[in-house]
Design brief:
Length: about 150
């Protein structure tokens, strides 16, 4: 799969962060869709072919007893081949925020965690790994997202 063929769904309620992710990933050739709520994301997942998901785990759900992860996990149980997920969170565990880690959260194939704030190149590297386009990318220490 090439980057031009990869369709990425971004689940992000923060407009500024969503705009930055859309700009960075579109410049890298990805086809993108955006959902600002988890229910909008589920609707897109039912109607579009999605190759990978970027999920901000801090996105709010309509009811306090629901969580983004619980709703997404329930949806993933209904499909035979769920897309891999890049988790973005201010609370990502340090041992799971390294690019080489591949945690699994229940039935969710979370390829990597990215701690906010993150570098633009860190986002690109995580998405490239998720879509099989990594090419051994090394991340420079300075390129922070604003």
């Amino acid at each position: 799969m090439t980057q031009q063929e990869a369709h990425i769904l971004i689940i992000e309620a923060d407009t500024a962060l969503a705009d930055m992710m859309m700009e960075v990933l579109s410049q890298d050739g990805y086809h993108l869709s955006l959902a600002s709520t988890v229910h909008e994301a589920i609707a897109r997942l039912h109607t579009q072919t999605i190759d990978a998901v970027i999920l901000d785990t801090d996105t709010l759900c309509p009811s306090p007893q629901d969580s983004v992860l619980a709703i997404l996990r329930a949806w993933m149980r209904t499909v035979s081949s769920p897309p891999p997920i890049v988790m973005v969170s201010i609370q990502a565990p340090p041992e799971q925020s390294r690019p080489e880690s591949s945690p699994h959260i229940g039935a969710m194939p979370a390829v990597t965690w990215i701690r906010k704030p993150f570098r633009k190149k860190e986002l690109l590297a995580a998405v490239r790994r998720t879509t099989g386009q990594d090419g051994g990318i090394e991340l420079p220490a300075q390129d922070h997202a604003s």
